[in-house]
Amino acid sequence: MNQSFNKTLLASSLTLALAMQAGLASAADCIDLRSDAAPRLELVRGKSVIKRFCTPASQVTVGDPKVANVVVPNSGEVVIVARSVGTTNLIVSGRDKRSTVIDIAVGLDTLALRSQFDTLFPQEKDVRIGSSGNALILSGMVSDAAVASQLVELATAFQAAAAPSGTDAGAGVGAAAGSPSPSGVGAPPAAAGGASTASTGAKVLNMLSIAAPQQVMLEVKIAEVSKSLVDQLGAKAGYTKTNGSWTYGVVSSLLSGGAGSIGGVGTGIKELTIDGEKRDGLVKILAEPNVMAVSGQEASFLAGGKIFIPVAQSSGGGTPTITLEEKEYGVAVKFTPTVLAGGRINLRVAPEVSELNREGIGISAGGSGNASAILPSFTTRRASTTVQLLDGQSFAIGGLIRNNVTSNIKRFPFLGEVPVLGTLFRSSDFQNDRTELVFIVTPRLAKPMEAVPALPTDHYVQPSRTEFLLGGQHEGKRATATSKE
What we know:
Layout: H1 2-29, E1 40-44, E2 48-52, E3 57-62, E4 68-74, E5 77-82, E6 86-94, E7 99-107, H2 110-120, E8 127-132, E9 135-142, H3 145-162, E10 174-176, H4 189-192, E11 203-210, E12 215-243, E13 246-249, E14 268-287, E15 290-294, E16 299-313, E17 321-339, E18 344-356, E19 361-363, E20 373-375, E21 378-382, E22 385-390, E23 395-411, E24 426-446, H5 465-469
Parallel strand pairs: 1-7, 9-11
Antiparallel strand pairs: 2-5, 3-6, 3-10, 4-5, 6-7, 8-9, 12-13, 12-14, 12-15, 12-24, 16-17, 17-18, 18-21, 18-22, 19-20, 23-24
């Protein structure tokens, strides 16, 4: 009997305690309309919340229905629909004629974007998402620039998908408690949570910092070997005879290609000339330019010179004016690095080697046919590509093997075709040009040096007059580290 009574008493006590706790929680969650402190509500765009009043309300009025909409189902509660980013307020009038102003701030829903970030980029733990007005703010530290770009693109797509695209016309400003609401103010939450023009101009502010080194040094090696072989062999055999006032010859020079001359010569001349020439040239070019740039920025390098080329410009029917156009030549490199995850470097590089030719281009004025000016011409070798390498790896991005063979034979008709003896009546010219060129690039992640390295001029000592004039020395003797007194 006593045990049954004790169980009943315990159950009643627990029920009473739960009821009291629920009542206290309900009282704590409700809005006290008789309080002098103005409450403030933080809402998320596109979401709805239900707020209860501690005392019955007679009327609820919203300041800006484009920011927040209200539905009043009864005198004890209100449904608030956050429609667009901004601030507004509610004026709630109680039955005792007292009014309470409730401030409302509507912001962006960053929890959904945070969930996407955690799913797609689980290793990026230091990324923070905030909002200011209608803009998302991304801050914190990321591993590399590629991840930062992807985060910004994802946030931009999230903004575009979540932004409302229209507005409801004829929105009201107030609703009596317990009565149907006017269009817009008392609309159901599903319809009222729609669109608004207040959210135009949504954007993403990128305040992310990159943890990876962002400076890239590019080492470019340009190696070229050019070999030229020229063989010439020619002969001139001739006999001239004077008969009265006329002079005639059998054959003239085949090497020069000139015709026999007519003029006064001796009564008889016999001539035999053999001309042979062999030239063998070798040119080697090795350039190693080093350039440094920040990730995502273009850097350029030029070791060479500039030349100005005259260019004619039309002046509207009158005499054309001559302007000078600048042309650069030498060893040039342009590249744009992008640091990726894992020490990978995406590289857009364009090396170029150009030089002036020994023989220019002759131009003539007035159609005379004789060259009155010689314009410079250039030999250019360039490559342009995009590669992806690890720190310190090398890659040959361009190569050229050129082999030009030129052969010319000049002979006297019929006589130059005679075996053995015809050698005296013909000349041959053979030229072979072979060029090999390769570009090798090596990107490296660069960091500031703790100590300044030695410069090439640190150990140079200027010679004295005696050392230069009498000894013919271009560099003086280095001073000893310690001097004896």
